[in-house]
Amino acid sequence: MKNLIKQLFRFGIVGGIAFLIDYSVLFICTEYLGIYYLISSFISFTVSTVFNYIASVRWVFDVDQKKSQGRNFVLFIVFSVIGLGINQCIMWFGVEKLDLYYMLVKIGATAIVMVFNFVTRKMFLE
């Protein structure tokens, strides 16, 4: 139980930093570079996912070294792509159908994807 609490704490720190990266890149790409918000969201999600992968494998999860590192990376990418799909659907629905500000929708999308990420990484990376 103590290990799980430590892991959740570390996951929260990594997730917080990844969120700041994601949120900042989204805002910069959309507001300053004039990129359509869904493309900006794709870019920002991808950049934060790369950071998240490196930090998660090195600091958060006790990655099973007996399992292939290639297998771990492939699983991480597969679940990240699913997470991206969830993120994009929420972004589209919140902005286009609910007429909410894209930066506000991003907060909710991130929270949902964060739970998905923790559960899938806990189940498949350890």
Q: Mind sketching the topology for me?
A:
Elements: H1 2-32, H2 37-60, H3 69-97, H4 102-125
Helix pairs in contact: 1-2, 1-4, 2-3, 3-4
Quick overview of this protein structure:
It holds the Pfam family GtrA_DPMS_TM. The protein is an all-alpha fold and 126 residues long.
Please supply descriptive tags for the structure shown above:
single chain; 126 residues; mainly alpha; 86% helix; elongated
Task: Outline the structure in words.
The chain is mainly alpha-helical and 126 residues long. It has one domain (2-125). The chain is built from 4 helices and no strands. The protein is elongated, with a radius of gyration of 15 Å.
Q: List SSEs in N-to-C order.
A: HHHH
Question: What structural category characterises the helix and strand content?
Answer: mainly alpha
Number of distinct beta strands: 0
Radius of gyration (Å): 15 Å
Query: How does the overall form come out from the CA principal axes?
Result: elongated
- Total separate domains: 1
Question: What does the average pLDDT come to?
Answer: 89
Characterize the largest beta sheet: strand count, sense, and whether it forms a barrel: none
Percentage of β-strand residues? under 5%
Low-confidence stretches: none
Total helices: the number is 4
Task: Give the helix level as a range of percent.
Answer: over 70%
Terminal CA distance: 15 Å
Family: Belongs to the GtrA family.
Protein name: GtrA family protein
Transmembrane segments: 7-28, 34-61, 73-94, 100-119
Pfam families: GtrA_DPMS_TM (PF04138)
